[in-house]
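Subject: Methylase of polypeptide chain release factors HemK structure
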Amino acid sequence: MKQKEVYTPAEDTYLLNKTVKKELKEGIKALDMGTGTGLIADTLSDKAQKVVAVDINPEAVELAEENLATKNNVEIKQSDLFNEINETNFDLISFNPPYLPIKDQKIKEPINKAWNGGKTGKKTLFRFLDQLNKKLSPGGISLILISTLTEPNKVKSKIKDIGFDYEVVSKKKIFFEELMVIKIKNI
Ligand SMILES: C[S@@+](CC[C@H](N)C(=O)[O-])C[C@H]1O[C@@H](n2cnc3c(N)ncnc32)[C@H](O)[C@@H]1O
């Protein structure tokens, strides 16, 4: 069987997943951006009334469809960020973005999109943040995973620039970096 080129859940996935479990409320409408295997979308589907899960990588979409085949409240599609998502007013949007700064931008395999955050590690995340206000419901939250390698202070300034408040709600030290989950609030 062909091995799919999809991000394997790791410490970052588990930290975000744990935080999503804490913040998740019954009956909400949720979006899992960059779903990969669909693990976080699966957690969301336990309480959400509806979950949309998207990934730019077609192999991730295929795998998430297989993994979540029994979940009737999950819709999975291929999308570059919000491009193919018509719905608005999500109460919770989770995103574990590709956050590593990578100097060589010539690598083209789909799996590269799982961790390659451009030269500064913030390329996809900032594109996501620029569109967030169109998709988050009033009172809604977005949980994003970043690392000390992603220059957290610049990410926090960007969140203020787009008009939202934030709070760091989880942290975990691993090897040479510290992972953190930022809760962005649309208040
Ligand atoms: C670090 S992986 C996280 C995967 C999964 N959510 C997890 O936590 O294990 C980042 C994911 O974002 C996807 N991705 C990268 N750029 C994207 C984009 N522009 N739009 C949608 N998904 C994207 C990648 O294909 C990859 O599956």
